[in-house]
Design a protein that fits this description.
alpha/beta, Rossmann fold, two-stranded antiparallel ribbon, 17 helices, P-loop_NTPase, transmembrane
Length: 462
Amino acid sequence: MTYFLLAGISGVIFSALLIYFRRHFFKTLETTLALSNAVLSDEVELVKQKRLIQALKKMLISLIFSLVIIGLVIFVTTLPIALFAKINKIPYGYLDFNSVGFVLFLSIGSILPFVFNKKKKNEDYSEASKLLHKLILNNYFLSKFLFSIDHKFKKNKNIKQDSNFLIVSGLARAGTTSLTEQIFKAGNFSSLDYSNMPLLLAPNLWEKLYNPKKAKLKERKHGDKILFGVNTIEALEEYFFKVFLNDSFISDEYLIEHKIDQEVYENYLKYQALIKKKSDAMYISKNNNLILRYRSLRNLNKDFKTIFLFRKPVEHAYSLLNQHKRFTNLQNENDFVLTYMNWLGHHEFGNNQKVFKLTEEAPNITFDKNSLNYWLEVWLNYYSYLVNIIDNNTIFIEYEDYLKHPKEVLQAVEKDLKTQFNFLHIKPFVNPKNIDISDCNKDLLRKTDIVYNALKKRKLII
């Protein structure tokens, strides 16, 4: 019986060591995928060679360390049995490794560490899920390769590219998530949702492996009572632009206005076609970074529709400030939240918050991020640029109109899109705020008020 108990202890040691060293094994897998990513690089040859050398060096170092760890795990795991054999003077070859008792105790011991190493209740992602996200989303050239495979996979599905699509945008906290979801539910649309994570550029290939049924909804981390599940649509298309532009528009401080060329635009239309489930569906997406490439995209396509939302400057700034504080705390407690937002190009608030740089001159925002004035300047920077965008396929919607009269707003959108909506699920809602503006800069309030009134003159009349 002692022998079997020692077998169980060996099993516990084996699994416990694997769990303890798991992050290094994950790192080895990450470096291996990084090498594959470097091989798939379409960069100029000199840059590609440097990337390959760096990736190969990291992989070899990680692999050697892994072999050392594996050797250590084997040695420590077999130590209890070896000591038993030595104390009892039993030749190692005579030990019983095949009996039911030995296998049973070894198996039970191996399972126990995993039983007590469950995902934390407040964690949305398991370690395996986080690893999968890192392997895919960190490797842009691998994602582009998967995109090309997915395109070949679906090109015979009779889903054609269509220049007529809808993007809902605005500064974060303007109501873009809610409006996008309401439009999506009301009409015949296709969009990315959480089930497409992490293979965002290969939705059809991923669907063959992972096609979840509707899951229980829960409140998102914003604390704004908006519920989401795996089938909830979300702002995920920005990853496409991050990959195809190789993050060239993201600096340490700013998100920079940029142009997209014809090739990127054509791939964007291909991407939309990959996401469509039906040939007659319109592609819809929420993308608060649209302003960075709006003029460029409009020059390439006069047909697509855009909805920009805006709200009262002080209320908007107050909401941004609260979310900034909330996400800063969340990211300090869990660095995966920060990593996740960086992957998706969400730099609206938190430790990775960046300001839109929409002109040659960088915005001069002098206030502290934890002050209402800072976010008023962020509002002014964004909407003073946006208010000058004039074309026939752009709709401006005021947040307060959407709150009080959502059905009427959607009816106006329905008419503009020349489509038909189902309004059964539409309900008005309220969002009361009592905001202290005593510390707000008076000149800043005046400037934002001027832009706000200009936006109101441009807004959709319901």
